């Protein structure tokens, strides 16, 4: 694992332009870029010193997915990389934390149906998200988010210091996956639609109750916390499920679930959420394409 000094005092910006040979395997990517040397600070509250120096990416990668047979996009020492898939709710968590904390990184989108060999070497389970920084390789949404929060505490930690709150956030986290399972259940067992929707409503009411007991409007209180970013991707997809199933019971509405509906509204205003958001039509399209066995990973990107 690469750990070097992470200076809290200053932000060193070094701009350099790199020119890569046109004929390289990455010829299709834009090769002119800037390098900024950014140092972030360790937390002031005496927690573990973070000693990582990050460089801001120098190459702007094409956001299109890399599939089997694509050459490995070379890494740059000191540049944090996220292996991602634009419609993956788990990778979206990591992306949200990166964006919210303004942590410099580059993103490589991976075709998860036809995975490149180099991706399988990095991620033997073949799952995104994965973070890579030099020799460090870290998979799993929650692990990557925790690591980012610990390593780049910035102004505010996203993880609550109160242990009971942390424990309850874990309870919420454990239950959110069941919300997206609804979509797959509805596809597989259309005849059980009412039962499935009843279960979903029950779960959403449970989230509403927990949120109502908090000081709001976020699950984190008056500021978004880690749990808000971990939950959000699953909720962002609910309007698309509503669209696909023509069932309005799926998306929290202000009359029945006012706190959740307000939370969704306020989350949508966060710059990190805006930066990573896919709109309802895009999600619906991706879900539908996934259902046919040909996931349209690059939907919405220019040809
Ligand atoms: N527990 C993992 C789940 C990640 C996950 O399921 N990612 C999906 C995309 S949304 C994936 O990589 N699927 C590829 C595959 O199953 O082969 C996490 O939280 O990161």
UniProtKB/TrEMBL annotation:
GO terms for cellular component: cytoplasm. Gene3D superfamilies: 1.20.1050.10, Glutaredoxin. Residues 162-299 form the GST C-terminal domain. PROSITE patterns: GST_CTER (PS50405), GST_NTER (PS50404). InterPro entries: Glutathione-S-Trfase_C-like, Glutathione-S-Trfase_C_sf, Glutathione_S-Trfase, Glutathione_S-Trfase_N, GST_omega, GST_Omega/HSP26, Thioredoxin-like_sf. GO terms for molecular function: glutathione dehydrogenase (ascorbate) activity; glutathione transferase activity. GO terms for biological process: glutathione metabolic process. Keywords: Oxidoreductase. It comes from the Eukaryota. Residues 78-156 form the GST N-terminal domain. Belongs to the GST superfamily. Omega family. This is Glutathione transferase.
């Amino acid at each position: 694992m690469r750990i070097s000094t992470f200076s809290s005092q200053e932000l060193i910006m070094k701009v350099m332009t790199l020119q890569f040979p046109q004929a390289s395997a990455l010829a299709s990517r834009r090769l002119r870029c800037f390098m900024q040397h950014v140092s972030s600070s360790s937390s002031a509250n005496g927690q573990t010193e973070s000693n990582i120096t990050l460089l801001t990416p120098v190459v702007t990668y094409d956001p299109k997915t890399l599939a089997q047979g694509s050459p490995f996009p070379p890494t740059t020492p000191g540049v944090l990389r996220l292996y991602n898939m634009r419609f993956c709710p788990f990778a979206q968590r990591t992306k949200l934390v990166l964006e919210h904390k303004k942590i410099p990184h580059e993103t490589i989108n991976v075709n998860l149906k036809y995975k490149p060999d180099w991706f399988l070497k990095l991620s033997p389970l073949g799952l995104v998200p994965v973070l890579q920084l030099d020799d460090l390789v870290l998979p799993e949404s929650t692990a990557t988010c925790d690591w980012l929060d610990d390593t780049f505490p910035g102004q505010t930690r996203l993880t609550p210091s109160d242990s009971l709150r942390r424990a309850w956030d874990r309870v919420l986290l454990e239950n959110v996956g069941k919300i997206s399972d609804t979509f797959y259940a509805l596809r597989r067992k259309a005849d059980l639609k009412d039962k499935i929707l009843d279960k979903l409503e029950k779960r959403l009411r449970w989230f509403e109750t927990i949120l109502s007991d908090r000081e709001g409007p976020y699950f984190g209180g008056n500021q978004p916390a880690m749990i808000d970013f971990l939950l959000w991707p699953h909720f962002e997809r609910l309007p698309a499920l509503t669209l696909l199933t023509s069932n309005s019971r799926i998306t929290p509405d202000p009359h029945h679930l006012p706190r959740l509906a307000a939370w969704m509204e306020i989350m949508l205003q966060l710059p990190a959420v805006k930066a990573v958001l896919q709109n309802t039509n895009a999600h619906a399209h991706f879900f539908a394409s996934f259902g046919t066995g040909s996931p349209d990973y690059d939907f919405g990107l220019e040809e």
